[in-house]
Amino acid sequence: MKNTWKGILGCFLMAALLCGCGKSEDEKEVALITDGGTVGTASFHKEAWDGIARYCKEEELTYGNYIPDEQSTEGFEKAISEAAENGARVIVCAGDEFSEAVGSMQSEYKKIKFLLLDAVPVDEDGKEYIRRNTHAVLFSEQQAGFLAGYAAVTEGYTNLGFMGGEESEQNIQYGAGFIQGADYASKEKGLGAGQVTIRYKYEGSDELKPSVMADANAWYRGGCQVIFACGQPMQTAVQKSAETLGKAVIGSNYNQSSLSDSVVISAVKRVQEIAYQQVGAALDGDFKGGEKESLGTGHDGVGLTMAYTTMTQFTQESYSAIYGQMAEGKIKVTGKEISSDPSAAGVENVTVQVEEAQTEE
Q1: What superfamily in CATH does domain 27-139 come from?
Q2: Number of Cβ atoms within 10 Å of the Cβ of 190
């Protein structure tokens, strides 16, 4: 009888091991959909991935990333469906290229929570559409740009450049903040009107073009000491130019120090930390479904990469002081286009030289 019961018990144990309570190999409770790139090299999506991975490892959750077959709304939707079929409870997307896909799929998978970073979902007509199972998180580019401009002038640069890709809302905000930050620092240093100059241009496209490097070369050879480059992969061309001519670059969006020795600091969106926090909120019941919010210094949503900077005059003490003032609301930064009339934003010391974008024939 004892042997019989041992045999039965053994069968139950074997069944538990084979069928068990474990999760299937394909199951991914938290999923990141990329824009076609991988999560292995420095990028906006790598930042999101690192935040997701950190949270899931701590909580012993399964997670994975899905690379679409094509960079299109249809390709993103297909990847989202695959993640949903593999048991995703939370799906994370980053960038405005996902606006339509999340706008559509949030209705298709109402029980799944969607976290859209740096964008807002839209319907088929392009109108903002956020369901209760979706949270959209934006970032204050104007505050990040302000910190970049402030750091540059505090470091001692007086001949600056701002080079954006498309004249998008994001680049407009970065540029407006950059001008205001440079002006604020120049006043703190007691510099007079016209002692700080910013060459300012939207290249008309975020694509990697020879004209971008040609512009950067001309600016640097003309005396420009540092360029705040906004828009990928355009930044690559500016970094190559700076490397060749021994000049400096301020990166944007994410930490770019590993991409080029020319990057002296980066103005970043703290995607990794926000992804970590918001995935946790989605799974713990604090999810802000149906809402969008913009995170700035008050929520530690943007900042500078002080741990990777090569600046020497702009110190951690300088950074902490200006960051604290912004977080407390003592410094207001507009995100409106001000390059043509900086005085409208109270800019007095900085001279902005706007250059028109070249049109392709």
Answers
A1: Response regulator (3.40.50.2300)
A2: 8
Distance, in Å, from the CA atom of 180 to the CA atom of 183, rounded to the nearest integer, reads: 5
| Domain layout of the chain by residue ranges | 27-139, 141-268+302-355
CA distances from 112 to 159, 191, 341 (A): 50, 54, 46
The span from the CA of 238 to the CA of 216, in Å, is 6
- Answer whether 178's CB lies under 8 Å from 205's CB: no
Whole-angstrom Cα distance, residue 103 to residue 114?
10
Cis peptide before 233 (omega within 30 of 0): yes
For 60-78, letters b (16+ CB in 10 Å) and e give ebbbbbbebeeeebebbbb
Q: Domain 141-268+302-355: what homologous superfamily?
A: Response regulator (3.40.50.2300)
| pLDDT of res. 12 | 37
Q: What is the per-residue pLDDT for 22?
A: 46
Q: What is the pLDDT of residue 206?
A: 77
Name residues of the chain where pLDDT drops below 70: 1-25, 358-361
